[in-house]
């Protein structure tokens, strides 16, 4: 996999450290973006981050249904983990290339383009067979530019696979089920969910009101995210990026939305 990644580069890396191929961070992005994303490093270091891999593995199954494994796969925003992400770990991919904008060197079992941003992908035209965005699209400062870059490096017939969280108030409300109480709560939190539902639902109603207000105002989730997604916004955004959704699913009991997209038209080379 490592030699394949090197052969697909369209520029010289600054350095190579193990499986980390370090490239200069893309130009044209704001200093605020860099500060915001660097502030999220602590999330990856938390033991609780992605401790439950159920939805990640479901995303892998969604991808595997149509993925052509003979071509390289680019994972936009793969994270700071040593092992392959669980959504691709069991696929038996011939070639997987991670891409992580945070300039942090960690031991990896796969090649990763470190310091590379989606708005300036350091790969040759038409060099990958598919691109994956696993909860990373909402971290990208200039999504239109990023998708255009992905379409440039994508082979004809290739797909883009997205895993996004939806924040429609009714979707978040529907997550309050007994399945979540039993499977995703422990100790005091579970007891409170069972014994004090009236209080929790009163809090939930206020959260939904705040969420509706924030959606209308276009406020981001937090300092590390740039946008919300709702069911309507996903459809509108993909069309504005020049993409057509060919498959999609909302994972029951969650706000996780998977979609496979195809380009409506080809993008010119650099």
TrEMBL record:
Coiled coil: none annotated. GO terms for molecular function: S-adenosylmethionine-dependent methyltransferase activity. SUPFAM superfamilies: S-adenosyl-L-methionine-dependent methyltransferases. The keyword Iron does not apply. InterPro entries: Methyltransf_11 (IPR013216), SAM-dependent_MTases_sf (IPR029063). Residues 74-162 form the Methyltransferase type domain. Gene3D superfamilies: Vaccinia Virus protein VP39. One of its GO terms (biological process) is methylation. It holds the Pfam family Methyltransf_11. Transmembrane segments: none annotated. It comes from the Bacteria. The keyword Iron-sulfur does not apply. Signal peptide: none annotated. Keywords: Methyltransferase, Transferase. This is Methyltransferase domain-containing protein. The lineage of its organism: Bacteria, Pseudomonadati, Pseudomonadota, Alphaproteobacteria, Sphingomonadales.
